[in-house]
Write a structure and sequence with these properties.
The protein is an alpha+beta fold. It is built from 21 helices and 28 strands. The termini are far apart.
Length: about 675
């Protein structure tokens, strides 16, 4: 009797140092009941990948789960699958770090379970053929990718029931295509339909039904805990598989030894289809969705899938300057790893965790705690290189073609960009390990279309035999969200130069619709490296074209720095010169400006200094001026949209300090970090 081999795998991951309550919820709703169910069925063979940090949490804090994992491993039910220890996208980190991270997880699994993995879970299924030699050096024989990787590279759908061989520079690797149909069926279909979906892969004695997907689908995704455990979907599914005479559960490594490949394969540089969509800019994503709709689902799945596709994962570094900056800071630190201690290396590996570098349905870059964690690791690394003497470097650190000045004092890590107007792009405390410049620009995303131009969706009748996946879930729209959808026209750094012919106010500053008459806020400045001096010969453009020169010179001490700003213009009338700052705080609702909470917005008139008290870091940021006349400031909290775009998250505090001038202006600002 012909049988189909069921290669069933689960992938478990939480962002490194994620909120304790988030991890606890995943433990209680997903990991604990999953293994408590599986341990009752030792004859069901399956594969497990768990990122190293999460595995540490389970082994040290949740003995009941660890005990069930041990039992299932000893009886031969579990096959352990490796990856980078702290779950990096492997193609985004240096070659030597790939090998080190994989071997670190291999060794940890060997130590705790006495098993050495020879298969790899490819983080976010981001594939590049250059990975192959490094995987072989890490003793990896096979990896799992999506069937989409093959289909989009021109392979036939009816061949997605086994494995292929690929090579790079003569090094071989087996590749298993995960069934997209099964990813959307398990655990969302009824058990009967799920079994039918598996049996549909049965063509001959060599056929395999391949499913390797997020364990969090089994209890943590919306509505799945009730479905999977309270209604016993998983229990019933496992029992049905074990009893089914047409299905044989098998490990990937066993199948690899006993079955021949479908031949050689070379794949596109790709991930899953949704990731390709998310990596595109908003207008490109909407165009891709429109194209798919125009050609029709049948054409797309049968023919167009080879030609209609999104971008590659690394496009996130193009789409989000903040992601690119953090990524390139990581690469910069990786070059110094030979000088790092064992503990510093751990921080480097944690910094390589994938979650913070991209944005999709789960939040990623938009989540402040993930960015805070990443900068914490980065600043802890920088602290190991800090000396009492101020260290200064000039290089194109973010690899965008323009130089930055990097300053490292005993207390601060600072960086200023010539591409972005001589603005401050890093403002890190080496005492609190917190980056106040960890800000995010308010961008238009494709999912905002649902808010700006909502479509009427006919409510479907509830089907008690299946539930929606997170990709199909409908969101309830709130008209008030439209009011908060504000998009910036420049990056939200600090020391941004604005020139207007009318006073700034809270409302036009919040909505970024004041009249900008200069060209300094989002244009490159020339860098004179001998003086830490940035300058731009631009203009004021109203009632003519008036030559204007803006310069910014920075001078540094241990816990403070001084900025001298000059504006010399041929413009004959009065104008308003504003310096914009955008600072990130962990608790923006508790931060005070001159002893005032911000609430919905704060207007401070006739001041020559700002005292900003941050309760989270226990630091006071004192901004003072040398002017004989007073300044005005407007301060407000700005928000961005995380996850699906329907949760407004306070990300940072923006404020602009401005004054009136005519023809020439010289302003010196001193920014000092003081312990509270």
């Amino acid at each position: 009797m012909k049988k189909v081999s069921l290669l069933f795998g689960v992938h478990m991951h939480q962002p490194v140092d994620n909120f304790g309550e988030a991890v606890d919820e995943a433990i209680e709703k997903c990991y604990k009941p999953f293994f408590a169910t599986m341990v009752k069925h030792p004859h069901f063979k399956f594969s497990v990948h768990c990122s190293g940090w999460l595995l540490e949490q389970i082994i040290t804090k949740h003995k009941d789960i660890y005990d069930n994992m041990l039992i299932l491993t000893k009886v031969g039910a579990i096959e352990w699958i490796s990856a980078g220890y702290y779950e990096p996208v492997l193609s985004s980190i240096p070659s030597h770090n790939r090998i080190e991270q994989i071997k670190k997880l291999n060794n940890y699994i060997k130590k705790k379970f006495d098993k050495k993995p020879n298969g790899l879970w490819l983080t976010e299924r981001v594939w590049e053929s250059s990975l192959v030699p490094d995987l072989k050096k890490s003793n990896i024989d096979f990896a799992v990718v999506d069937d989409y990787h093959f289909l989009s590279s021109g392979f036939d759908r009816d061949k997605m029931d086994g494995y292929f061989q690929t090579e790079e520079s003569g090094e071989k690797l087996a590749l298993f295509p995960i069934s997209g149909a099964l990813r959307y069926a398990l655990p969302f279909f009824s058990v009967k339909k799920a079994i039918e979906a598996i049996e549909n892969h049965q063509k001959d004695e060599n056929s395999a039904a391949i499913i390797f997907d997020d364990a969090e689908k089994f209890g943590l995704w919306p509505k799945t805990y009730e479905w999977v455990y309270e209604k016993k979907w998983l229990e019933d599914f496992v029992q049905a598989v074990v009893k089914n005479e047409h299905i044989k559960t098998q490990h990937f490594s066993q199948y690899l030894k006993t079955h021949k490949s479908h031949g050689i394969a070379y794949l596109n540089n790709t991930s899953y289809f949704e990731m390709g969509e998310w990596s595109l800019r908003e207008n490109q994503t909407l165009s891709l969705e429109a194209l798919k709709e125009k050609v029709g689902l049948e054409y797309f799945e049968n023919i167009g899938i080879s030609f209609i596709k999104g971008g590659i994962w690394k496009n996130f570094f193009v789409k989000y300057a903040e992601s690119n900056f953090l990524h390139k800071r990581m690469l910069y630190m990786s070059k110094k790893q030979n000088k790092m201690s064992k503990n510093a290396l751990k921080n480097l590996y944690k910094l390589q965790t994938n979650d913070v570098f991209w944005h999709g349905v789960f939040g990623g870059l938009y989540l402040p705690n993930l960015r805070d964690n990443a900068y914490k690791y980065l600043l802890e690394l920088e602290k190991t290189f800090a000396k009492k003497k101020i260290k200064r470097e000039i290089d194109d650190f973010d690899m965008d073609g323009f130089d930055e000045i990097k300053i490292l004092t005993n207390s601060l890590s600072l960086m200023f960009s010539s591409k972005n107007g001589g603005q401050m792009v890093e403002f890190g405390s080496l005492d609190a390990f917190f980056n106040w410049q960890n800000t995010l620009t308010r961008r238009k995303e494709a999912y905002h279309e649902k808010i700006l131009n909502p479509k009427t969706v006919q409510k479907q009748e509830e089907n008690t035999e299946e539930i929606s996946t997170i990709h199909d879930a409908n969101e309830e729209l709130d008209e008030k969200l439209k009011e908060n959808l504000i998009f910036d026209w420049h990056l939200k750094n600090s020391f941004i130069d604005h020139i207007s012919n009318a006073p700034f106010n809270i409302e036009n500053f919040k909505r970024a619709n004041y009249k900008e008459i200069g060209d300094f806020a989002n244009q490159p400045f020339k860098l004179d490296s001998s003086k830490n001096l940035f300058s731009r010969d631009g203009g004021i453009y109203i009632d003519g074209d008036f030559k204007t020169r803006v310069t910014k010179e920075y001078k540094f001490k241990d816990k403070c720095f001084e900025t001298t700003l000059t504006c010399k213009s041929k413009y004959p009338n009065c104008a308003y010169y504003g310096i914009e700052f955008n600072f990130h705080f962990a608790h923006p609702h508790l931060v005070t400006f001159n002893d005032n909470l911000i609430h919905e917005g704060l207007n401070l008139k006739d001041i020559n200094s700002l005292d900003i008290v941050d309760d989270f870091t226990n630091k006071r940021l004192k901004l003072s001026s040398n002017l004989d006349f007073d300044l005005n400031a407007f301060i407000l909290k700005t928000v961005s949209q995380s996850e699906s775009g329907f949760d407004m998250v306070a990300q940072q505090i923006s404020f602009i300090v401005f004054c009136k001038f005519q023809e020439d202006l010289e302003l010196t600002l001193n920014l000092e970090v003081i312990d509270v």
